[in-house]
Write a structure and sequence with these properties.
about 325 residues; single chain; alpha+beta; 7 helices; 12 strands
Length: about 325
């Protein structure tokens, strides 16, 4: 048996014709021979539509084989991991964004922030749980963030009642679903002057168990000077929908904005875990068991908070 691999990554949703000629040699150096079944396939004696398409594909390329004898061939189509997303992207293009500012004072000046904290909707119907952000607000101004607008859009909700998306055949046109949901977001805008065509944009994605206020979005703002960094909670993250972010200004005034929590109490135990709703568990499996994997993340988050404080000190020293 012989194995081979392509020089380049194959494109998705494409037809590929694999051809073996008699230039391939066996273990003793003789040319490999055609299996009678392959010839029967080309002659239309077996294989139905597949063999018909294989014979047609071979006929189209025989002239480029330089007289080499074909002894085997296979016609296949690569799978696609992105077909659904490509269809959904087309489907939402004509849907109104429903942009809304998060109140009259929805733009924060990074240099005028004293503190930012979260109040997470961990226990549906119960009191919000306060949480410290991994990055202190001083880090944002130190790394060139000028303003932080808070707003939201409305987007089609593709998730059904089972929190899964319906499979749509690739040959059919996907229509945007009628239900929509509000998606709060924030933007880290550079302190630099905005170019005539606007800032280039980076959409920052957080890790599992994190949120749009986590370290990846801060790191993106720090590492992409001159870019506007947009961040939104992935589904199943940010705890429940009542979660809020609280910003204390240098003047002492406190502003509150929706944090856009998208977590779901799937196991109905009265608690929403950091990524509950992102991953569906097998029937009978409790989130209390699955959440064990989150504990290292919590430890890492605390470590990041301590590290960020050190970075802030270094950044401030460098600027002064």
């Amino acid at each position: 048996m012989a194995t081979a691999k392509p020089d380049n990554v194959l494109e998705s949703s494409r037809n590929y014709l694999l051809i073996v000629t008699d230039e391939v040699r066996d273990s003793v150096g003789d040319p490999v021979e055609m299996d009678p079944g392959f010839q029967a396939c080309l002659d239309g004696q077996i294989g139905g539509d597949y063999c018909s398409r294989l014979a047609s594909a071979l006929s189209a390329v025989r002239g480029s084989l330089g007289g080499r004898r074909v002894v085997a061939a296979s016609l296949s189509t690569t799978l696609s991991a992105s077909a659904w997303y490509e269809q959904a992207r087309v489907a939402v293009r004509g849907v109104p964004a429903g942009f809304q500012r998060a109140g009259a004072n929805n733009v924060l000046q990074a240099a005028g922030l004293r503190a930012i904290s979260l109040a997470n909707d961990v226990n549906p119907g119960g009191p919000l749980v306060n949480a410290e952000l991994a990055a202190p607000p001083q880090l944002l101004a130190a790394f060139g963030v000028g303003r932080i607008p808070f707003a939201s859009i409305r987007a089609p909700r593709f998730l059904g009642g089972t929190l899964t998306t319906a499979a749509v055949p690739t040959g059919e046109t996907m229509m945007p679903p009628a239900p929509t949901e509000e998606l709060p977001f924030h933007v880290f805008l550079p302190a630099s002057t905005m170019p005539a065509g606007g800032y280039p944009v980076v959409i920052a994605g957080h890790g599992i168990g994190d949120s749009r206020f986590g370290m990846p979005t801060v790191a993106a703002a720090a590492a992409t000077a001159g870019f506007a960094v947009v961040s939104i909670n992935a589904f199943g993250h940010g705890f429940g929908p009542r979660s809020v972010v609280r910003a204390t200004l240098s003047s002492g005034e406190t502003l509150e904005f929706p944090a856009g929590g998208r977590g779901v109490d799937i196991d109905r135990n009265g608690r929403i875990d950091p990524f509950e709703g992102c991953i569906l568990l097998a029937p009978g499996r409790r989130w209390a068991d699955a959440s064990v994997s989150v504990r290292p993340w919590r430890t890492t988050s605390n470590w990041c908070a301590r590290s960020v404080r050190a970075w802030t000190s270094m950044a401030t020293a460098a600027r002064t």
